[in-house]
Request: fold
Amino acid sequence: MSLKNDLILRAARGGKTERTPVWIMRQAGRILPEYRAVRDRLSGFKELVKTPELAAEVTIQPVDILGVDAAIIFSDILVIPEAMGLTYEMVEKKGPYFPQTIHSQSDLLKIETGDPDKRNYVYKAIEITKNKLDGRVPIIGFAGAPWTIFSYMVEGGGSKTFSKARRLLYTNAAMADQLLGMITESTIGYLKHQIQAGAEMVQIFDSWAGILPPDHYTRFGLEYISKICDAISEVPVTVFAKGAWWAMEEINTLSCQTVGLDWNMNPKKAKRKLPNKTLQGNLDPCVFYADDHSIKTEVKKMLHAFEGHPHIANLGHGIYPDTDPEKVKYFVECVKELSHQR
Amino acid sequence: MSLKNDLILRAARGGKTERTPVWIMRQAGRILPEYRAVRDRLSGFKELVKTPELAAEVTIQPVDILGVDAAIIFSDILVIPEAMGLTYEMVEKKGPYFPQTIHSQSDLLKIETGDPDKRNYVYKAIEITKNKLDGRVPIIGFAGAPWTIFSYMVEGGGSKTFSKARRLLYTNAAMADQLLGMITESTIGYLKHQIQAGAEMVQIFDSWAGILPPDHYTRFGLEYISKICDAISEVPVTVFAKGAWWAMEEINTLSCQTVGLDWNMNPKKAKRKLPNKTLQGNLDPCVFYADDHSIKTEVKKMLHAFEGHPHIANLGHGIYPDTDPEKVKYFVECVKELSHQR
Reply:
């Protein structure tokens, strides 16, 4: 079936579009009462991730309710470590917890690159979404970047300092490379299956990029992201290396089409440093706490700052769960209206 | 009494020194068994902060044990909100917790700029330290930057997103300015008293600088740091705006002498963007997990990167509590030995 709205795909490929396309990181989730209604019927977040019909339902909600130009499949970056052999629990209000973690060479024997079939529930959810969307907007697939997934597999959860994961880079680079290599291989297979199932664009989230010293990020972060970008030529790829402001020149050399910017990053500088890339972002998610007038002003500033460069409007980070959906609708309307006039 | 080792003060003022001075953020603390022995005799962290004789003892420990070129007074940035009327508890392994927080204009009535005398225990600790050090090395005083203190007073503790504090900047800028102004006034008085008591240098820690969008950091962060810098002319001032890599040009215009860099920041770029400032930093604290050979290599790289610019060696962040003190001693020796040869 052909897409009725392919704005985001054209923008990702660097083409001119009649207006700026817009979607929102974490748009499918807790901000919507309709999502919470589905979630409340289940035992937890992971049951929702693993129930394709319901994952598809919450994936489509923001398209209907917020009017965004893309659906991002409702899932979790941690399906990769789980498929590799490390199960996790999602602890309410605390985040993920892995009872088993990786610290030594022998721990690597506990895991495997991962049978792609173990993530069938994700592909199934994409297929159902595709059917139900009926070409209204494209579907974005995603995965965590190898460094971020590595961090979870070593730390066993979130961390302020990530010092266990970072310690390994100094003390056992060979083993770190081996694990990063396994994650990369697993991720490539995973993304390819998502594309086969119907994802028309994929995003790689490197949530913990900003914690690494620049030389380590080149060596242990971008090295592996680059392998993923090189392996995916079927659809446009977006790289979002949160906090890695210093790496823009290097990111410009990756074979991805779009680069996500967080809200600290200056769009004008990014346009200069990433001349080959479509830019995505980068409104501060806290703008949604302000009144409509301020939201409109901030959208204007954002559109103006990205002017003259292929741009996909978004936040500079996942939306905060206590955001009022009415504000988000207004943001989407502002982007549509104001970018159309330009 | 005259100082026997004033390397750090001369470096801070931009002078040439026979070798690079070195100290370590959080050098007085959990990494030293000698510190833990003192701490274990007490009810908690806050009792140690409020007992001048013991605070002085742990302040001097790293000078004796690690061989650093300065003592930083053992205290806490949260003595300011406490003196302003918000008491806090230090929860073991979790961090600070404020039962009362500031959210509205009327909450401002609960607090006051703060009688400097309420922090007498800090000044007393500096006096004792000064006496005991007998001029061996200078004493560094410190305070949190207004934005960081504001965050704690609004959030009531640490946060992943700081969305309550950041929300206020969008929804009630006038009130935010009022609170930031009160914190600034309180901090200026506090630092001046520390200097009177014997601090020969002061550092302003803006731990949460990196969370703000650049325009907000200019408006709500640097605006107030600038007032503090302008008010303190007695001793050299160091500004450490963690994560605010985009603000280097603006920070170069502050009337401070030294600028702290975190481990993401490129010293070569910093030298260009901060031509008027001594630079402090910026080894990755995770380097201490590596073997001696790697530590030496990293120190060499750091010294080389800062070459030709006034430099105070340090980490790019507070040292992690599980660091082996032997590694830290080795780091200090490496800086002394390698910078002497240059």
